[in-house]
Every structure is written in C-alpha cells, then in structure tokens.
Amino acid sequence: MSADTVPVTGWGRTSPTAARPIRLRSYEEAVAAVRGCGARGGIPRGLGRAYGDAAQNAGGAVFDMTALRRVHAIDAEGGTVLCDAGVSLHRLMQVLLPLGWFVPVAPGTRHVTVGGAIGADVHGNNHHVSGSFSRHVLSFELLTADGEIRTVRRGTPLFDATTGGMGLTGMILTATIRFQPVETSLMSVDTERARDLDDLMVRLTTGDRGYRYSVAWIDLLARGAATGRAVLTRGDHAPLEALRTPGRLAGGTRARRDPLAFRPPRFPAPPSFLPEGLVNRRTVGLFNELWYRKAPRARTGRLQRISAFFHPLDGVPHWNRIYGSGGVVQYQFVVGHGQEEALRRIVGRVSGRRCPSFLAVLKRFGDADPGWLSFPVPGWTLALDIPAGLPGLGTLLDELDEEVAAADGRVHLAQDSRLRPDLLAAMYPRLDDFRALRAELDPRGVFTSDLSRRLTL
Predict the structure, then answer these.
(1) What is residue 339's three-state secondary structure?
(2) Is 204 exposed, middle or buried (0-12, 13-18, 19+ CB in 10 A)?
C-alpha cells in the first residue's frame, strides 16, 4: 500500500486528478483498505481503459485491482469460469480459447478486467444478439462499504445496480461467467462499403439478423452526398470446416494444425513524446479516404484472426499517445429506433464541424439488460474519438447532449468526463433508484469517484 498521491487519468488522458493508489493483493487487504480509506473514499480501478473519470478519485484512494487475477475454477464442459475481478479479458482468452470457449461479449479492447466489464456493463459488436456483459454473469462477490462480502445473484436489485454502476455500489472480488463455445480462433468476415448514412442504416437494419457481430466504421469528415459513408464489417466465429478452403487465410496450414491458437501480434509503442496536432483534419482526412477506398465493395467469407477482428489497436501499446498531451475525448451516445432523424442531424453536425475522428463506429443495439445505469438500449449507437484540444469542442458536445436527451437517448458514462448533471435524469430513468440504493448501502460515501461527484450519483 502507498501513502503517496499520483496523477490519475482515464484512457483519454484528460482532466487528471491526484489520488492515493492502493494495490490490493488479497481479499483481506481489500477489506482493510475499504474500512480505512479515509474521508474522500475510494474507487476500484482495473486496467484504466475507461476514457473518462469513472476510475479517478481526487484526494482519495484508488483501489488497484490488477493483482487479484486468479482463475479459480473452469467448467470445461459447461463453459463457466469463476475468477477474480482483476483478471483481464485477454487472460481469459488465453486460458479459455484453447478449450473451445470465447468471451460472451468482446468490447473494443481485451485489456479490460472482469470487474471493469461488470462495473461498466460493457457491450460489443454482438449486442443485437448477445446483450451486454452482465447478461452472461451468473453471480459475483461484492465487498460493500460496511466491510462485508456479499454474494450477489442475477435478478436482485443489488445485481442490477452494480452492473453498469461504475464501481459505486462496492468492490467486485470474484465473478462467475458463462462463455460461448467456438470451434476455432478465427472469424469468417463479410465486408462491404456503404455510400452514405442512409445506405448504411438500411444495410444494418436488413442484414444484422444474419450475423452475430456487426459494426460499421463511418467517415465523419465526408460531406454532401457522401455524408456518413462507411465500411460495414460483419461476421461470426469460423467453424472448423472453413479452414479446409485454401486461400482464405495466410498461414492456413498452421491454423488447421492448431485451430484454437491465440497469438495476438504486438507492435512497438508510439514514443512518449509525439508532435502536437498529429491528429488533425488533414491527417484524418487522408486516413479516412485511404481506408474507405481500400475496403472492398463487397467481400464474403474472409478468414481473420480474432485479435484482428475485435481488437486491432490492442497490438499497439499506449496508442492513445498519438493524440498528444491534450488527450482525446470519446463521445458515445445511443438513440432509440424511430429516432433516425436525430442520428442524421448529429452526424451532419459532426461532419459539418469537420471533427477529425478516425475512430468512429456505428452499430445497432438489441434488447437492454436490467442494469439501472447500463448504457445500451435498443437503437443506434455512435462512438467517436476527438482530440480534446479541438477549438469549440465543449460547446459542440454540450449541444449534442441536448440533442441526444431530447431524443430520449443517453451518453455512455464509462467514456464520459464532461456531461452536465442536469441531463442525467432524462437519460437514465432508473437514476433515483440507483441513488436510493447507494444511499442505503453506503451512507458515508465510501465508494466515490470524480464521476460520482460531478454527476451527484
């Protein structure tokens, strides 16, 4: 344990605040840390991939969970795993893929802890089929503010408050999760180009039911008739028989010999100091043009490794450095089915504002899960990364917040660092229930964060 404070940020590297890190190595240390964390409280933190301030705690403690990373039990027949909350999804893939099981929900990075995946109720490109991460969690052990460890099961208020609750109901220590069976560590992928936003939405609406995974990269610098042009990528886990077709994958002989191998590539990290303004309209415009043009107009059945399909950026450590010292803001929102006009207006405003975002994705959510602060609801979700220093960005995002709230949509709290608290209740109708349960469970505010203070959660 450390008594020194250090600057802490999210993955976006914006709004750093000083906190006291406490690295936990046992459940006993966790109980002692919670009982003695001080007046400013503490918040659990995993691998730091949330963009915003959900795992920051100015003047208080930050509980580093990453040393609690044991995999306790695996049911290789039924596909369930009991593990510590500090185990990463990357580690679970290493352990489970060779046994023929894959994580039920794969978010944009595999460097997320199980506790973080539950606390943010993460989603992936299969939400329209599989829902959020919490749908596949059978139970978890939760250390609450009174120092007690509770077993929390599906269907209870505490389960629903914790899944998506941003670590504010307590510290998850272990979880039991159900995985999905796979025959290979490869994906069978279909790719096509959409000429504009309307074309893209038609393709997603009519075609998603035929795929487990579906996501579109969207060019937010394109304007006029090309506004919202996109590359749509959809796929499913490749069966063993797909490996018998020559030419569908480089190194096919090796893949046939070891079809469940998991060997993600790793590339050099960007240097610590990069020129400021590297991500700008000119560089992003060039990237977007090349990315769109190189994509096939239509290609089916291409075999791709799991790491390339789900997590292409994970191979580059600290890739967030490319945005410079000012950092990056991720803005993600969802609006419901029937609110397509709101989506068109927002895409038009971002494109008209010439926001340089090369990481912009659009997809469709399916049925919501019961987490009170869980982000996904049925509809359309757009996520975009924007350099934090872009002039006028705060005003633009405030205006987009108003647009999203007026369309009965919401922004993603795990990525947020700037939402105004007066809009929160309109976006999250179970907010009062969450606040009431938290006040009863943790009246002294032991579990607290910069996010919870800013939004009065």
Answers:
(1) coil
(2) buried
Least confident of 140-149, 267-276, 296-305, 389-398: 267-276
**Residue 295 to residues 216, 266, 383, Cα–Cα distance (Å):** 12, 24, 20
Contacts with 439 (C-beta within 8 Å, 6 or more apart), sequence order: none
pLDDT band for position 253 (cuts 50, 70, 90): low
**Which H or E run contains 438?**
helix 431-441
Instruction: Give the pLDDT band of residue 36 (cuts 50, 70, 90).
Output: very high
C-alpha dist (Å) from residue 5 to 16, 55, 61, 92, 445: 12, 15, 9, 32, 20
Among 63, 185, 226, 48, smallest CA distance to 120 is for 48
At residue 247, the pLDDT reads 59
Query: How far is 175 from 118, CA to CA, in rounded Å?
Result: 9
Question: 93 pLDDT exceeds 90?
Answer: yes
Alpha carbons within 13 angstroms on the beta-carbon side of residue 78 total 11
In 103-241, which ranges are E strands? 137-143, 149-153, 171-178, 180-181, 186-194, 213-218, 230-237
Query: What's the whole-number mean pLDDT along residues 182-203?
Result: 97
Handedness of CA 419, 423, 427, 430 (dihedral sign): positive
Sequence-distant (6+) residues with CB within 8 A of 429 are: none
Q: What angle, rounded to 10 degrees, do the helices at 340-353 and 197-207 form?
A: 140
Residue 1 has pLDDT above 50, yes or no: no
- Distance, in Å, from the CA atom of 318 to the CA atom of 300, rounded to the nearest integer, reads 33
Is residue 244 pLDDT above 90, yes or no?
A: no
- Other C-beta atoms closer than 10 Å to the C-beta of 17 total 17
